[in-house]
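Team,

Forwarding the record for the chain on the shared tracking sheet. I've put the sequence and predicted structure together so nobody has to dig through attachments.
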Amino acid sequence: MAGEAREQVAAQTLELPREPGVYLFKNRDEEVIYVGKALDLRQRVRSYFLSPASSSPRLRVLVEKIAGLEFIVTDNEEEAFMLESNLIKKYAPRYNVRFKDDKNYPYLRLNLQEPFPRLEVARRVEGEGYRYFGPYSKAGAVRETVKLIKKLFPLRSCRQSLREGEARGRPCLNYQIKRCLAPCRGDLPQREYAAIVEQVILFLEGRMTHLLKRMEKEMQRAAKSLEFEKAARLRDQLSALQKLGEQQKAVTTDLRDRDIIALVELPAGFSLGFFKVRAGKLLGADYFKPVTASAGEDSAEIMKEFLRHYYERASFIPGEMLVSHWPAEKELLAGWLGAKKGHKKVQIKVPQRGEKKALLELLKKNVLLQVQEEERQDREKGLALQELARIFSLKELPQRIEGYDISHLAGQDTVGAMVVFLKGQPCKDEYRRFKIRTAAPGDDYAALTEMLQRRFSREDAPLPSLVLVDGGRGQLSAASAVLEGKGSPSLPLAALAEKEEQIYLPRAKRPLRLPAGHPALKLLQQVRDEAHRFALAFNRGLVLKSSLASFLRTIPGIGPARSKALLQHFGGMEALREASHEEIAGVPGISDVIAAKLYEALQQTE
């Protein structure tokens, strides 16, 4: 049946126009499985059926799956290039080279339609009027960037709807500690706030030299106009930015802006490294992997798709890109990049010698080190799963491990948490939180029973390969009773006690003790600790909603006196959340150890 449909499509290619456009291959379920563009639609589409043996393995499989064809004619190849990109994003075809989508890579954004924009973290690009920065490969890098910006630039962080000349009550503590210009007062000119927004944009684009020059001019202008408070603020900002610039490593002598992209082929696929160089200084590194690309694929096609994917919404496009492999259709790609840059020239180069070649080799080395570290972690996880299968006499590796913990504050606001590890890695999309409804305050066994009963009453939820509860013999007994009552008495179950790291097993008289560095124990500890962290963060979040003072009491080492000192120093949660570890440690009576615990708790509840 599939063969007949494919032959019909092959015959249909003879009727295609010899014009530029985009073509879409579909399978027998009418799903779009590949999107491509062509200068000559008839010639390009026919080529798939004329010499499939010479194609890559992925394209040979693609041809076998083709059961339908659609095409769209465009005026020129440039239009086809842009339409192809939009359709790939829309359909996410299985056989196109693709990278992770927007919901996986976080962005920073400014809503420029607001009179007084604030900086937000976004998981997907949507709507008009936003200015996006990124994508970032790690959420941690985004959080650190936001914290740094809040220290350097007095942007507002509140969610109020503000208008110029319209007061919204008293300004918060951020205004008092010079972290916000307080547009909520109603007397801040929109143009003055817009100057701060422009500084943030230059900072996020990595254009530090432009930023410093502009701020120095604004400082001198403010001083001449006798705006001494504004001049002092700009002076402090300028000093902090100059110190930050001194920490960045100079890697080229010509002081140009450029991005460096290295594609490294591995036995199982590809990995890409990315260096961002601005004014000759290395500002950061990132690493990306294609979602659909296997070893032996066309490196030129992968490089093209990465450049198109990354710069589709990049906030800044440099005038030069150094790449390890020439991208497919490099002239068309360079024209597209130039148009996005504001009709300015963008050069794509493969350096052959000198400092640029050395920089590209350094990036490749970093990619390989990153891959080696990931492989080492994968080997450790694999060994841990094998050991768990042996300990629990499992026929297969425990692919899905569920960890459970209970948290409360002196018996109040009791909550439960479930974390899920798939193939030894945390899968946060599967995490669940439980507000305990029926258990008596302080009764951890009853709370655990309630949570597990609710979890295993869900018929649509997959059964785990292993259940781990935080605690000892009592928690194990409570969990065993629930599983027996739900008809799953044979489900592998264990309890891990934190004090002596003993593993309690059903029907075992004595707890199991494993060596401290045993891979199975390390994985169980990771699951237990993650469940504990997740439950504690949920409990603290609930407590925080009712009282900041109550929240502070959840931190070990913070009693009434230290709580009072923190409240007097910061005034409220907004300022405390924005404080660094060093600023918290600077409060009288707060040691470095306690500051670290509080800082970590604040990050978890954010």
